[in-house]
Write a structure and sequence with these properties.
Bound molecules: magnesium ion
Mean pLDDT: 97
CATH superfamily: Creatinase/methionine aminopeptidase superfamily
Strand content: 15-25%
Number of strands: 15
Radius of gyration: 17 Å
CATH topology: Creatine Amidinohydrolase
C-alpha cells in the first residue's frame, strides 16, 4: 500500500488541468486582493466568490468537517487556518493561502505565501527559499525518479538555509480526490516511495519554518502553528509526470 500510485487517463488529466487552472486563478486573484486591515473571514468570503466564478466549489469546505472555503494561515500558522472575523491582517504579516477547487469532479490544489503591506527581511527570505524548495522539488519530479528524489530536493534547499521542515504534513497525489496516494514528504525517509510514471499527478507542497520544524494544533482542532512561534511559509503546485519535464497544472488560467 505504501507504494500505491494513481495513474490518470488522458480524459482525467484534461479535467484535472481545468481544476488546477481554476485553483491557480483563485490563488492569483487573492494574492492581488489581500491587504492589511482585512479580516481573514473577508478573505475567505472573497475566495468563495472567486471559486464560484470558475464554476467550481471549494474542495476544502466540509472536508473532514473543515469550516472554511480556503485555508488562511498567518505568520506562525503553518496550514489549515480558518477565516475569522476577529483576525485582522496587519502590514508585514505572512499570509499563506491554500486553495482547493472541485470542478466537474476533479480537484485543483495550490498554495502560496505572500506578505501583506511592508515586507520584513526575514519573512521575504523565508518565502523566497520556500518557493525555491518547491521548484527544486518540481524539477526532480521526472519520470523514472522516485518520490524520494522530490523529497530530497526540497530538503536540500531547506537545510542549506537552516529552515525547519514540517514533518506532520506532506504533499500527495491529487486529481479525482483531494488526497490520493502516494504521500510526498518534504524530507528524505527510509522508503524511496513509488517510481514516478506518466499520468501521475502530485501536489508538491513544502511547509518551511524559520525556526523549529515542530508544530502544534490549536484548540480549534485545525490551525497548525510552529511550536516556537516563528514564521512559517507554504508553497504548493500540482504537477503532471510526463515523458519529459513535469507540467505544472496550477498556473493561473489566462
Ligand atoms: Mg495539498
Amino acid at each position: 500500500m505504501k507504494d500505491a500510485v494513481v495513474i490518470h487517463s488522458r480524459e482525467e488529466i484534461l479535467g484535472i488541468k481545468k481544476a488546477g487552472q481554476a485553483a491557480g486563478f483563485v490563488r492569483e486573484e487573492l494574492k492581488n486582493l489581500v491587504r492589511s486591515g482585512m479580516s481573514t473571514k473577508e478573505i475567505d468570503e472573497i475566495a468563495r466568490a472567486l471559486i464560484e466564478s470558475t464554476g467550481g466549489k471549494s474542495a476544502f469546505f466540509g472536508y473532514r468537517g473543515f469550516p472554511g472555503q480556503i485555508c488562511i494561515s498567518l505568520n506562525d500558522e503553518v496550514v489549515h487556518g480558518i477565516g475569522r472575523n476577529d483576525v485582522i491582517v496587519k502590514s508585514g504579516d505572512v499570509v499563506s493561502l491554500d486553495v482547493g477547487v472541485l470542478l466537474d469532479g476533479y480537484v485543483g490544489d495550490t498554495a502560496e505565501s505572500i506578505i501583506a503591506g511592508v515586507e520584513k527581511e526575514e519573512a521575504a527570505f523565508l518565502l523566497k527559499k520556500t518557493r525555491e524548495a518547491l521548484f527544486a522539488g518540481i524539477n526532480a519530479a521526472l519520470k523514472g525518479n522516485f518520490v524520494r528524489d522530490i523529497s530530497q530536493a526540497v530538503q536540500k534547499i531547506a537545510e542549506a538555509n537552516h529552515l525547519g521542515i514540517v514533518r506532520e504534513y506532506v504533499g500527495h497525489g491529487c486529481g479525482k480526490r483531494l488526497h490520493e496516494p502516494p504521500e510526498v514528504p518534504n524530507y528524505k525517509t527510509s522508503n524511496r516511495g513509488p517510481k514516478l510514471q506518466n499520468g501521475m499527478v502530485l501536489a508538491i507542497e513544502p511547509m518551511l519554518n524559520l525556526g523549529t520544524h515542530a508544530v502544534k494544533t490549536d484548540i480549534d482542532g485545525w490551525t497548525v502553528r510552529t511550536l516556537d512561534a516563528k514564521l512559517s511559509a507554504h508553497f504548493e503546485h500540482m504537477v503532471l509526470i510526463n515523458e519529459d519535464n513535469p507540467e505544472i497544472l496550477t498556473w493561473a488560467k489566462k
